[in-house]
Specification:
The complex is a heterodimer of chains A (about 550) and B (about 325). By secondary structure, chain A is α+β, with helices and mostly antiparallel strands. Chain A contains 14 helices and 22 strands. In chain B, helix 5 packs antiparallel against helix 6 and helix 5 crosses helix 8. The longest helix of chain B has about 35 residues. The chains are: A alpha+beta (about 550), B mainly alpha (about 325).
Chain lengths: ~550, ~325
């Protein structure tokens, strides 16, 4: 996923110390949690919105058949049963999943949750042309018909309910080892059967979560209150909330938001604190700051279908030449990022440290190897060609772009940088019509599976020439890698763990082919007011609002 | 008179049509502006992308899209944002107007009054140290970018000196409605008013001074002096009145532009959710319906302000009246 771009962090050596995660147990419930964001993040229809900012809200307001455990450690990556009584064991060679609904769950409007709602919700994913309808849920039997004609979607034979028994059976046309993870993201959350089959925009849809959205005005605020019909059925899936109300205000700049939190006028901000305030909050407010590494990367995809980067040696040269420590400094220092040169981020399933692009190739990056890089450029015969770098117009992205320009110039190219508005850059660099040679982008996971990086970003299927939605920006399509990924998917059907070593190999293969230069792994800075207790950070959805308490 | 009004209206419609067409064309000529891909999210399948594009009506020819959008903006008034779908644009702008009006009216009072005082005082003391000091300060005021002044004001009043007696009264950034909380409204807007007015006080003061000095060499001033009127009376009654022409012209245009959202940087810095901030956000996210609505709203005010200024000339300067 690509949440609304985490704003730039750039501090001349900001002193940020990671806050030991030892939250004092919150004593009291009640009060109002006041959140801030620079701008609203679009529709509040959980089947459509695809931003981290809104997913954090859906996480506490809605439930899926399964969900990611609401926990502040690595177990937050694990899928647990939510509206279903238990995690199903795949049957029929991994093609059938049978869920039994918990009895007695009500929506925030008082309606009982039944199997009808589940069936209708799955149909609705297609009826509203959800962003992942064709990528996450296209394996459900009948999905192909739904994708072709969304309005008449029935998913007949795909999602089968037995209302009397309270069970829902989902049949896939082919086994999918990641299916439960896909069911745990908000696009598969369950909403009432009567919900209209169109983007509900600013109208709240009733949910089953601990909180219910009361109102939403993208120019002012989003307000949530305790869901009166909510009774906790599983503390790990959907715990009861600490505060009574949550008010999410839009419109303050990041500067103003930091000040508001310092003054106790607000409790938390979605956007990253601006670079010039990092030193101040890291020293004077150290107890209110927490840092967490993200399953994400900053990377520079290189177009494998355009000169000079249609030559693998030129791409490897760029990888060897980049001083990743310099980039980490640009991003705010070692506390805010760490160098990376492989696709999978540290701590991610399937991650094994690997770095071929360093002075002493091995497991970790140490220093650039300019000599080797120049030799590769000479071998490739691409020196002297013009290269344009497309960056975003944020402080960091532009700085990274200018740095890359220096590197490419030193390698013998005629390099230039063109920053583009951060709201357009991501779609611009995807479209082959724009003939982008190299760009600077970020990637954040949707769910913790290696395929979410490797398959999504570097498979032939993710490449759509001439389309703004062609997330394989490098245009990378390699037979050997495709075959290996197929093998990994097959291995993952029966046992996700068994697939991980295969994914590790894919990671190595893609890293060696260098369709991109991975730059660094960013960290998330959360700054909370002094009244906030029990700040809990899920690796999947970041801050868990229902766990935060205020004095 | 009727003809004058009709010609103005004709001009207004023409200007608004031209602006809307230009905005529309710029949007569609921008690579990567297609909202379908941004809404559909990353890695959307080609089918999904196509369906989203259809749901926005983006698959129709441009003139049809333009016509539909104008119809939904002016006739049915149910045009919704591209970015925050479901957000109706017209009510959103309507809701933002009081914020912008409060900000601009308050600042206008300050800057008209301040500009008059600075201009008249400097002209009256022409050549003295006080005159030079006033002009130097005005130049500084004109040179400081409004967003920088705003951020510095915020730094002092919200952060560094927030806990001292000077600024402990300053409420958190944001707008309080005048009708429900008049005191809060005043407190919340005082610093933004000053910030926005600084530039204009400097500008208007300098213009007025130059005009006054020129006017005081006119024939009718010599006549007044010959009649034996006091210098102060001449300056205020005759000089200021005829020097106000340029002042009023500028005021009309500036005021019109600001009401139309020209104060956007001030609004952004102070977290005031007015029309300017809406415009700023919409430009950031390329939200065409909101950009269209705010730009058309702004152009209406600029044209209206022009008409008003022309009418005021006749009131201020008898020579204009005689020319009709």
């Amino acid at each position: 996923m690509r949440p609304r771009v985490l704003a730039a962090l750039l501090a001349g050596g900001a002193v940020l110390t990671a806050w030991g995660a030892s939250p004092t147990l919150a004593q009291e419930k009640g009060g109002t949690l006041r959140l801030l964001a620079r701008a609203a993040a679009g529709t509040i229809d959980p089947h459509i919105n695809y931003t981290l900012q809104q997913w954090q809200i859906f996480y506490i307001a809605y439930d899926g058949l399964v969900t990611f455990r609401k926990a502040g450690d690595q177990t937050g990556f694990e899928v647990v049963a939510d509206l279903a009584e238990a995690l199903p064991t795949p049957e029929n060679d991994g093609k059938t999943y049978r869920f039994k609904l918990r009895p007695g769950i009500k929506f925030s409007n008082g309606q009982d949750l039944t199997t009808d709602d589940v069936v209708a919700s799955f149909q609705r994913i297609f009826k509203v042309s959800g962003p992942t309808a064709g990528t996450f849920y296209n394996g459900i039997v009948g999905a192909d018909k739904c994708l072709a004609a969304p309005a008449d979607c029935t998913l007949e034979g795909g999602v089968v309910a037995d209302k009397a028994a309270g069970t829902v059976t989902i049949n896939l046309s082919a086994p999918d080892g990641e299916f439960l993870q896909k069911l745990a993201v908000p696009h598969a959350y369950i909403v009432p059967a009567g919900t209209a089959s169109s983007d509900q925009g600013t109208t709240p849809i009733p949910g089953t979560g601990a909180y219910a959205i009361q109102s939403y005005d993208p120019n002012a605020a989003l307000k949530l209150a305790r869901n009166p019909n909510f009774k906790e059925w599983s503390a790990e899936a959907q715990p009861e909330g600490m505060v009574d109300e949550i008010s999410y205000d839009f419109g303050l700049t990041e500067e103003a938001a930091v000040t508001a939190i310092q003054n106790g006028d607000a409790d938390w901000m979605f956007d990253a604190p601006p670079p010039d305030r990092l030193a101040e909050i890291g020293t004077q407010y150290a107890a209110q700051v927490s840092l967490h590494p993200l399953s994400a990367m900053w990377y520079a995809p290189m177009n494998t279908r355009l000169a000079p980067f249609d030559n693998a040696k030129a791409r490897q040269a760029v990888n060897f030449a980049i001083d990743r420590n310099a980039l980490v400094k640009l991003f705010g220092g070692a506390n805010l990022a760490q160098p990376a040169c492989q696709i999978l981020p540290p701590g991610f399933p399937g991650y094994t440290p690997y770095c071929p692009y360093t002075a002493a190739p091995g497991t970790t990056w140490s220093a650039p190897d300019m000599e080797k890089a120049k030799a590769l450029v000479a071998e490739s015969g691409t020196a002297g060609q013009e290269v344009k770098i497309i960056a975003e117009d944020t402080v960091v992205s532009r700085a990274v772009g200018v740095y890359l320009q220096d590197v490419l110039t030193e390698l013998g190219y005629k390099a230039s940088v063109q920053p583009i508005s951060q709201n357009l850059q991501f779609t611009y660099i995807q479209n082959t019509n724009n003939k982008v040679q190299i760009s600077i982008s970020q990637w954040f996971q949707d769910y913790p599976s290696p395929s979410n990086f490797l398959n999504v970003l570097f498979s032939c299927a993710s490449f759509h020439p001439g389309s703004d939605a062609s997330v394989n920006i490098a245009g990378f399509c390699d037979e050997a890698v495709e075959a290996k990924m197929k093998e990994a998917f097959a291995a993952g059907v029966s046992d996700a763990k068994a697939a991980l070593p295969v994914w590790t190999e894919v990671d190595k293969m893609v890293t060696d082919a260098a369709p991109a230069a991975v730059l660094f792994t960013p960290k998330r800075v959360d700054f909370v007011s002094s009244r906030v207790q029990n700040f809990t950070f899920s690796p999947q959805f970041y801050a868990i609002f229902s766990k935060l308490a205020v004095q | 008179m009727l003809f004058a009004i009709l010609s103005r209206l004709g001009r207004l419609v023409f200007v608004m049509f031209g602006i809307s067409v230009i905005v529309f064309l710029i949007f569609f000529a921008t690579p990567g502006a297609d909202p379908a891909a941004r809404i559909a999210g990353r890695n959307a399948s080609p089918q999904t992308l196509e369906q989203v594009r259809q749901s926005f009506g983006l698959d129709q020819p441009l003139p049809v899209q333009y016509g539909l959008m104008m119809k939904r903006l002016f006739i049915t008034q149910d045009l919704t944002s591209f970015v925050n779908r479901g957000q109706k644009v017209v009510p959103a702008v309507t809701k933002a107007i009081p914020v912008t009006l409060s900000l601009v009216l308050g600042a206008a009072v300050l800057w008209v009054f301040g500009g008059l005082v600075v201009g008249v005082a400097a002209a009256a003391m022409r050549g003295s140290v006080a005159d030079k000091a006033l002009m130097a300060i005005s130049l500084v005021g004109v040179s400081m970018p409004v967003f920088w002044v705003g951020e510095v004001m915020n730094l002092l009043s919200q952060s560094r000196l927030h806990h001292t007696f000077l600024f402990s009264w300053v409420p958190p950034l944001g707008y309080k409605p005048l009708l429900t909380d008049p005191v809060g409204w005043f407190k919340a807007l005082l610093i933004p008013w000053v910030t926005l007015a600084i530039l204009y006080i400097g500008l208007y003061g300098r213009i007025l001074r130059a005009d006054l000095i020129e006017t005081m060499q006119e024939d009718f001033v010599r006549t007044a002096r010959a009649k034996g009127l006091s210098e102060g009376r001449i300056l205020l009654r005759h000089g200021v009145r005829s020097s106000l022409v340029a002042f009023v012209t500028m005021f009309g245009l500036d005021f019109g532009a600001l009401i139309g959202g020209g104060a956007l940087l001030t609004e952004v810095v102070f977290g005031l959710r007015g029309v300017g901030k809406m415009t700023y956000d919409a430009l950031q996210t390329l939200d065409l319906p909101v950009i269209l609505a705010t730009v058309l709203y702004a152009s209406f005010f600029v044209v209206a302000a022009n008409a008003l200024v022309d009418a005021l000339y006749a009131v201020i300067d008898p020579r204009v009246r005689d020319a009709h």
